[in-house]
Design brief:
- With about 160 residues, the protein is of the alpha/beta class.
- Helix content is about 45%, strand content about 15%.
- It has five helices and five strands.
- A five-stranded mixed β-sheet has the order 1-2-3-4-5.
Length: about 160
């Protein structure tokens, strides 16, 4: 009797651990998909490779497809989505004349990504505090400010 109870307790514990791990992986993915959908709703295109001719004109998001190609062929792109990652976000001229409220929405969306390798934004879109938060959230990210050079660093110096 005790052995059966211990087995069920162990099985329940394993199931909870697995559910927690799965949720910690899928919740950020789901949030990121929502942000990408929000940008798409605003008219920004999503690419699977970065087309330089588009960069800084209409902007866009580059989502690198990852994971085994053979598995992607079997289960499809939708099921492989959690393996994909955002590599570039270019808001380009898209938000050049954004109101402060719109800029805060852009910041909220950017902060929701799991990873970004390169971010291109218009000058003055984000405050120095927002830039510092993004720099700490994505430490290896390359920031480019369109069209006049780099975004101020966390200390506010221009470079």
């Amino acid at each position: 009797m005790k052995s059966k109870r211990l087995t069920w307790l162990l099985a329940g514990t394993c199931a909870l651990l697995l559910a927690g791990l799965l949720a910690s992986w899928l919740v950020p993915y789901s949030r990121e998909r929502g942000v990408i959908a929000e940008f798409e709703r605003m008219g920004m295109p999503v690419f699977d490779h970065w087309p330089p001719f588009v960069s800084s004109y209409i902007g866009g998001i580059c989502v690198e497809k990852r994971g085994p190609e053979w598995l992607r062929r079997i289960v499809g792109d939708d099921w492989m989505g959690p393996f994909d990652r955002v590599t570039h976000v270019d808001v380009g001229l898209f938000f050049s004349f954004a109101t402060r409220s719109e800029a805060e929405d852009v910041f909220r969306c950017l902060r929701s990504f799991r990873n970004i390798d390169r971010l291109t934004i218009g000058e003055g879109l984000l405050t120095e505090e927002e830039v510092a938060i993004l720099r700490s959230r994505f430490p290896g990210m390359e920031f480019v400010q369109y069209p006049w050079g780099p975004i101020p660093d966390a200390a506010g110096a221009h470079g």
